[in-house]
Every structure is written in C-alpha cells, then in structure tokens.
Amino acid sequence: MRSTHDAFHVAVPTHDLDEAVRFYVFGLGAKLARRYDDRVTFDFFGDQLVCHLDPAAVAVEPVEYPRHFGVTFARAEDFDRLLQLVEHRKLRVLSGPATRFEGTAEQHRTVFLVDPSNNVLEFKQYDDPRLQY
C-alpha cells in the first residue's frame, strides 16, 4: 500500500522543456525537481510529473477524454485558490470551471487546463469528500 512518503508518477510528452518549466513552475507553482537534456521532473502537488522531450508524441489538438491527469482537491478552498491562480496567471483553459453531475452524489466542480504541449490537466473537487478517490 502507498504511504505518505511515496509519490505517484506520471510522464507526458513535451515539445519544449523551457515552456514546460514556465507552465508548471511559474504557472501552476510546481517545484522543479530535476532537469536533463531530454526531460524535466516536477514535484506536482506532492507527486512526480516528468515531461519528456518528444515533439512527435505531442497531441495536435487537446481533448479532455480519455487522456488527462490532474488533482482532486479534498477542500473547496484549495480548488477556489487554483481557480484564482488560473485567472491571475491567465493559464489556458480548455473547459470550465463547471459543475458536473449536478444534483447527484457525484456532484463536483471541475476545470480542464492545457499545457503548452497540449497535455490536458483536470482539477476537481467533490461536494462529498468520500468520493475523492
């Protein structure tokens, strides 16, 4: 089982390492962990995100489904702070913010962002914190 000392790892392609750093560090506030000629690693909300330099693998157009990654916030205040950051730093929004499954047990707020290499990120927060997982 995962402990609080373990980190989830996800890797995505990028066409430009400098743009990835600008978006994730200076846009979203991730911490730069390591940088190499072919990849950059971030502390992304406590987990590990690696952007690999692979322009041929970059999506031509961003789409929400099926491939995206992100964070499900436990607290509404944290989701609200992210929305303020997105607005303040004028980060590229694919869709939202919106409420999905309104009136059901699965009701949650969501926003989809797009990084400079068309990787799609979803940030969300459920009304019922038991549905975070």
From TrEMBL:
<dbReference type="InterPro" id="IPR004360">
    <property type="entry name" value="Glyas_Fos-R_dOase_dom"/>
</dbReference>
<protein>
    <submittedName>
        <fullName>Glyoxalase</fullName>
    </submittedName>
</protein>
<dbReference type="Pfam" id="PF00903">
    <property type="entry name" value="Glyoxalase"/>
</dbReference>
<dbReference type="InterPro" id="IPR037523">
    <property type="entry name" value="VOC_core"/>
</dbReference>
<dbReference type="InterPro" id="IPR029068">
    <property type="entry name" value="Glyas_Bleomycin-R_OHBP_Dase"/>
</dbReference>
<feature type="domain" description="VOC">
    <location>
        <begin position="6"/>
        <end position="126"/>
    </location>
</feature>
